[in-house]
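Usage

Read records sequentially. Each one opens with the input sequence:
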Amino acid sequence: MAWKIPSFREAFEFSEKTKGELRQLFHPYYIVNLILAFSFLFCKLTRPFCDLLFAVGPETCELDMRETEILFFLAVVIMIRSRKTGNISLVAYLTSGFMYAKCANMILFFMADPRLGLVYTLLFLLQGMMLPEPTYKGPENIVYFRGNSLSEEINRDKNVVWMVTFYAAWSPACIDFTHVFAKLSADYGLPNLKFGKCDVGRFSDVAEEYHINTSSLSRQLPTLIMFQEGKELGRVPAIVNGKVQKFFFKADDIVNAFDLNNLHKKCKEDKKFVPFELKEAKKDK
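and closes with the structure output:
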């Protein structure tokens, strides 16, 4: 039976990404939100809390029909919303569902007792003000362009591959993507693989040059384009037959769309662009 142990371990061993997500759940933001998301169920189904907080009746410490329907509807909404946003990780599912779960809890508490609803609403607001969602705050390796400087830079050295995000400061989707792009720039940035950003909300001529719609209803914000030798190699979201294709701006999706792992490896192995310090180290050896 000894030969089966390694395969069993491999089957149930967590990947580094999963371990990182589990560690992330210990952040106060996720702990407090999980408590708020399950607070009504816990209070309604657990003694002595249900006896103290809710009116005595035939369904004391049990969910009635209306409460069950609301919770079922909540589960459906969260699943549909997660599917639309492309959430595939545990943390992403939780983050997507927290707001809906807290709103449902607020309604349920108000239905049971307006006083409980007011207390829950106060806790809801305090959490939003004091415990915002954690975001990436590490280093970034990004060049910020202004107007014509973008075209000049991507044509200056034709051996450099550029990943450029076109964004608008007022766009919620662009704001959400900020931290993802910053982390990608830190993880994949090289002297010949560079990351840049251009605010097309300010520089409309750049938006026009690269065919990016910057209206409030635009589905092209943000737009991420790869350039090499001064030419566009690909972009997301893609435009096919004049229609903007749906794209989820998640780190894994971007890595896959542009094959960043292989691109990074290729650029890193290009001896012509080895950093000066590494060249000196090789000479010393």
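Summary fields computed downstream for this record:
- DSSP finds 14 helices and seven strands in the chain.
- Residues 1-6, 273-285 have pLDDT under 50 and may be disordered.
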